[in-house]
Design goal:
Number of strands: 0
CATH class: Mainly Alpha
Structural class: mainly alpha
Protein name: Putative TetR-family transcriptional regulator
GO molecular function: DNA-binding transcription factor activity; transcription cis-regulatory region binding
Strand content: under 5%
Shape: elongated
Number of domains: 1
Helix content: over 70%
Radius of gyration: 20 Å
Organism: Pseudooceanicola batsensis (strain ATCC BAA-863 / DSM 15984 / KCTC 12145 / HTCC2597)
Keywords: DNA-binding, Transcription, Transcription regulation
Largest sheet: none
Order of helices and strands: HHHHHHHHHH
CATH architecture: Orthogonal Bundle
CATH topology: Tetracycline Repressor, domain 2
Number of helices: 10
InterPro entries: Homeodomain-like_sf, HTH-type_TetR-like_transc_reg, HTH_TetR, KstR2_TetR_C, Tet_transcr_reg_TetR-rel_C_sf
């Protein structure tokens, strides 16, 4: 039997596809301008498909945000946990963060929108709590960098500084790539590694070694 309705998708059609389509829409249009209709159109489905999984656009946004954060943690935590000299570990974490920003550009752009969504008056209390939880997750990620920088200062390989401000500047420098980076046709993983190294180099140069 031929399929003519948008809803009539193969059985393997998964929730992950909704999240992927929504990430693209949120990246291209921003949270305010994106509608559930936009996501449905990208999927060639009806809104009912999306509302089956998500009560509101905001709830869908949260899952995209959560996916982006999960990918950052997956890239950075193994580097943080492997031990070794703190300065070397910090540089490796920055490189891992930079590569994740490039490889998951769509999702990380949505993550950067998260704080703005937190301020939207129209969200429910439950949604505001979810956003607070997501922001707490971001704080946890930031703490991984803070503790590593503190260790490097303690071991004497980096000069003493305001750790909180330094880490915010480091991560902010990498996150700025959402504004200027666009994946190029034919771009390879090696290309992204090289670009990540160029992104991290000036940041590391600003971390003065201890005298």
């Amino acid at each position: 039997m031929s399929r003519t309705k948008k809803d009539d998708k193969p059985a393997g059609w998964r929730k992950a596809e909704i999240i992927e389509a929504a990430a693209q829409c949120f990246m291209e249009r921003g949270y305010h301008a994106t509608t559930v209709d936009d996501v449905a159109t990208r999927l060639n489905a009806t809104k009912g498909r999306i509302y089956h999984h998500y009560a509101t656009k905001t709830d869908l946004f949260f899952d995209v945000h959560r996916t982006g954060m999960d990918r950052l943690f997956s890239a950075i935590r193994p580097v943080h946990d492997r031990g070794g000299p703190a300065r070397e570990r910090l540089v490796a974490m920055l490189l891992a963060h930079a590569r994740a920003m490039l490889e998951h550009h769509t999702y990380e752009t949505v993550v950067a929108q998260g704080v703005q969504v937190h301020r939207f008056d129209q969200t429910t209390e439950g949604q505001r709590q979810t956003m607070r939880d997501l922001i707490a997750t971001r704080d946890t990620l930031e703490q991984l960098f803070k503790s590593t920088l503190e260790d490097a200062i303690a071991e004497g390989t980096l000069a003493a500084r305001d750790v909180s401000i330094a880490v915010k500047v480091l991560l902010g420098g990498l996150q700025w790539s959402i504004f200027w980076y666009r994946p190029q046709p034919g771009e390879t993983e090696a290309d992204r590694v090289a670009l990540a190294e160029k992104m991290v180099a000036p940041l590391v140069a600003g971390l003065r070694a201890a005298d």
